[in-house]
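Suppose you are handed only two things: the residues of a chain and a line of SMILES describing zinc ion. What would the bound structure be? This form records exactly that question and the answer produced for it, so the two can be stored side by side and reused later without any lookup.

QUESTION INPUTS
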Amino acid sequence: MIGNHQGLNTDGWTNVGEVVIKNGGIHLNLELIKAPKKCIEYVLVHELCHLVHHDHSKAFYELLEKLYPDWRKTKIRLEKLMV
Ligand SMILES: [Zn+2]
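ANSWER OUTPUT
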C-alpha cells in the first residue's frame, strides 16, 4: 500500500480522512466526495506527489507547486470546508 496518508495531520485536513493509493487506484474518503471538484483535484495531486516524495519536504512542495500552482488557495478552501 503506497501513499496511505499519514501526513494528513500535518496538512491540517485530518477530517478529509484517508486517501489510499493501491493497485493503481486511488481511494478517497466519502467526506471528500462532497467537497468541490477543485478541492478533490488538489487532494489527488497532493497524493500523487507523495508517490514521488513520501514526506512533506521542500522537494514535495516544489513538485506540488509545479503540478498545481493554485494549491495554497485550494488548501485553505478545503480546510474551511472541513472544519
Ligand atoms: Zn501530504
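WHAT STANDS OUT: The beta strands are 20-22, 25-27. Residues 5, 7, 11, 46, 50, 56 surround zinc ion (CB under 6 Å).
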